[in-house]
Design goal:
Layout: H1 2-20, H2 26-38, H3 42-49, H4 52-57, H5 60-73, E1 77-83, E2 98-108, E3 111-126, E4 129-135, E5 150-156, E6 163-164, E7 170-182, H6 190-200, H7 204-211, E8 222-228, H8 232-239, E9 244-253, H9 261-264, E10 267-269, H10 272-278, E11 288-290, H11 293-297, H12 299-303, E12 307-313, E13 321-327, E14 335-336, H13 341-350, E15 356-361, E16 368-374, H14 379-384, H15 388-396, E17 409-410, H16 417-427, E18 442-443, E19 454-455, H17 467-472, H18 476-486, H19 488-497, H20 524-531, E20 539-540, H21 541-546, H22 549-553, E21 557-558, E22 571-573, H23 579-594, E23 608-616, E24 627-635, E25 642-647, H24 657-672
Parallel strand pairs: 6-14
Antiparallel strand pairs: 1-2, 2-3, 3-4, 5-12, 6-7, 7-8, 7-9, 10-11, 12-13, 15-16, 15-25, 17-20, 18-19, 21-22, 23-24, 24-25
Length: 673
């Protein structure tokens, strides 16, 4: 019996002894705590793992809610917490603290953070539970953080990259302008407010909304609007209103205004939709973003990346700030274009506000020197926030200045005749010295054409009509007969060799030049029409300029370039023309100006060669009887560039010679500079 009692007492003692021992080691408890930490399970960490002293010093909101907010506000992710385990197993003394080196790594909105600290675990009794519990303070969030400190992010704004021309002249740059504003205590009269609203083309209510913002003080300058620094007329009006003034401020500038408006585009405040799309790329609600043109196309290169500092603002009067981590600002790239801004401005001005488009290319390299759409808008107006009345005026202007014409395609008219000739010469069906007997104003191959006849403008052209005469008199019948001679397949193949029906390899989206709507020619009548740039043929202005390159390069057409860092003289098309045939065409193009109907380009200072063209607009409502005029030309002595120009609705201005006169001004100004 005694032996049985002894056994029972021994078992009871062992059970009691086991209950006094910790259920886990401090290593196991810390490992579990860190698992929750890495998963941001702060509630679990607080309720089940913090020791009594920590909970007395920090309420749940100081631990759980604060860390949740910090993690959210600072975009903390990729948290990786580890601890250094002891090399040897040891028996832990529950009367003593257990210390472990803890390594903390994380990514934040301002960059990576990493530090190491000792974490202490104490053996405590919590209710019916005895175990190891963590001693915590805010330095386990960030090493230098103490109770009462604030954590904040400071942003360093990246400079937007600039757009320069080939000579480093500014196209879109970070300059200065003016912020127009009021000081409320000096701006009290309702009539002054009404006057300012009229001058700025905004409502009185909009001015009141800005003045009544919560942060506004009576003696404080309140921004109302912005103005370009060269808008002296507006600034003078503003200056005359009591209580209104303006301050210089950083601002995007477009020095060439309308001349480069469609190419440069402009920036504007980011929209809510775009912000949602780009928020992961560092954009904020106060950012501006490219809205049109190259500002929009090059947004990724130009925008840059804002820098950020993660700071601890210490408690106390000194308010010392400690840097936790920093990502420096990365300014946007400077983009240098092949564009010659002064040549572009000269071309735009030469067009005298007429509706049309122009392009110029360097025939040796393929560099785009000019890309004009006329008329245009001033990007400075849009960047500053265009008024409703001004936008309405632009939108309702019959010349449509908001339409980008260099991106569109047009029937090229007779400017395509040199290309038709080049195809015939290379096919061996056109002998430049052999003349055709052509009589009368109209011609058809035979009665199978029905009512269709080819019409020419100058029936006085002397017979026989050879290639040179056909150029000088721009004889449609001659080129129609040559196209018929070479045949449908040879002609279509030749046009495709010149890049028709193929997307032009260019940095901007341009409408593809087409032979026809279907890309084929379905009848002899259509073949005849297409030979002189009518029918359904369309070409964009840059491609048209590029198509004249083989006449100067003995058969090579280069890929058109827009950026100076692109490899020069990239071959797009080659072997289009022999040197002998190229010489024949150059001679004919010079005679067009000297002997033909481009007399406005027969300059005394520049020996211009080129080809005019007139395209009738057919089939569209309101366009019957209207004609677009073209001139594609170069300086025959110094062919630094080929200029292609188109002016709309020249039917009442003397035809395409009207355009030749505009182009001549460009060449003369270029030579004089």
């Amino acid at each position: 019996m005694a032996k049985k009692i002894t056994i029972i007492l021994t078992l009871a003692f062992l059970i009691l002894l086991a209950g006094c021992q910790p259920k886990t080691t401090p290593e196991e408890r810390l490992n579990a705590y860190i698992d929750h930490w890495n998963s941001s399970e702060f509630t679990k960490m607080y309720s089940d793992y913090l020791n009594k002293g920590t909970k007395e010093a920090f309420a749940s909101e100081d631990f759980v809610e604060r860390q949740q907010k910090i993690y959210e506000d600072l975009s903390i992710n990729n948290v990786e917490v580890t601890f250094t385990k002891l090399e040897d197993e040891k028996n832990w003394d529950t009367e003593k603290p257990a210390d472990f080196p803890v390594q903390v790594k994380m990514d934040t909105v301002a960059g990576p953070v990493a530090f190491e600290k000792n974490m202490t675990l104490l053996f405590e009794t919590h209710g019916e539970t005895e175990d190891w519990f963590v001693e915590w303070d805010p330095s386990f969030i960030f090493e230098q953080l103490e109770k009462g400190d604030e954590v904040r992010v400071s942003t360093t704004t990246a400079q937007r990259g600039e757009i320069l021309d080939r000579n480093k002249k500014p196209i879109a740059v970070n300059g200065t302008g003016y912020t127009i504003g009021v000081v409320p205590e000096s701006f009290t009269k309702s009539e002054d407010k009404k006057t300012l609203a009229e001058v700025l083309e905004m409502s009185v209510a909009a001015i009141d909304e800005k003045i009544n913002q919560s942060w506004v003080q009576e003696n404080q300058f309140v921004p109302i609007s912005k103005a370009a620094k060269n808008n002296t007329k507006l600034l003078e009006k503003v200056k005359s209103i009591p209580g209104v003034s303006f301050q210089e401020t950083e601002m995007r500038e477009y020095p060439y205004e309308e001349a480069l408006g469609h190419l440069s585009g402009y920036i504007g405040p980011i929209t809510a939709e775009k912000l949602e799309e780009l928020k992961d790329q560092g954009y904020t609600s106060t950012d501006s973003i490219g809205r049109r043109g190259l500002e929009q196309i090059l947004e990724e290169q130009l925008h840059g990346e804002n820098g950020r500092k993660l700071l601890i603002k210490k408690q106390g009067e000194t308010g010392e700030e400690l840097l936790i981590t920093e990502t420096p600002a990365k300014d946007g790239e400077t983009v240098i274009l092949t564009i010659d801004a002064e040549l572009q401005k000269s071309t735009y001005n030469a067009m005298e506000g007429e509706a049309g488009t122009s392009a110029a290319v360097d025939p040796k390299t393929g560099e785009t020197l000019v890309l004009v759409s006329s008329p245009a808008y001033n990007p400075n107006e849009y960047m500053l926030g265009i008024s409703k009345s001004r936008f309405k005026a632009l939108n309702e202007d019959p010349l449509n200045p908001l339409f980008n014409r260099f991106g569109a395609a047009y029937a090229p008219g007779s400017t395509i005749k040199p290309v038709t000739a080049a195809i015939g010469l290379e096919a061996g069906t056109l002998d430049p010295s052999v003349g055709l007997q052509i009589d009368g104003t109209t011609w058809q191959k035979d009665s199978s054409w029905g009512d269709y006849r080819v019409t020419r403008l100058h029936p006085e052209a002397p017979n026989p009509v050879d290639l040179n005469t056909a150029f000088v008199y721009s004889d449609n019948i001659y080129f129609a007969r040559q196209a018929l001679e070479m045949g449908n397949n040879a002609f279509v193949s030749g046009l495709k060799n010149f890049g028709f029906e193929e997307e032009i390899p260019f940095a901007l989206e341009l409408q593809t030049s087409q032979i026809s709507n279907e890309g084929t020619i379905g009848s002899e009548g259509q073949l005849a029409d297409t030979s002189f740039g009518q029918g359904q043929m369309l070409t964009n202005i840059l491609h048209l300029a590029s198509m004249y390159e083989p006449f100067l390069t003995d058969g090579t057409m280069h890929k058109p370039l827009l950026f100076m860092d692109e490899e020069k003289s990239q071959v797009w098309k080659e072997d289009l023309l022999s040197a002998e045939n190229a010489e024949v065409l150059r001679e004919g193009l010079r005679n067009v100006v000297v002997e033909g109907y481009a007399q406005s380009a027969n300059s005394k200072t520049v020996k211009i060669a080129g080809k005019t063209g007139t395209a009738e607009l057919k089939g569209k409502i309101g366009e019957d009887g209207k004609e677009n005029g073209f001139f594609v030309a170069y300086d025959s002595e110094s062919p630094d560039f080929i200029l292609a120009m188109m002016i709309e609705s020249i039917e009442d201005n003397g035809g395409s010679d009207y355009v030749a006169g505009f182009a001549a001004k460009v060449f003369e100004e270029y030579k004089a500079r």
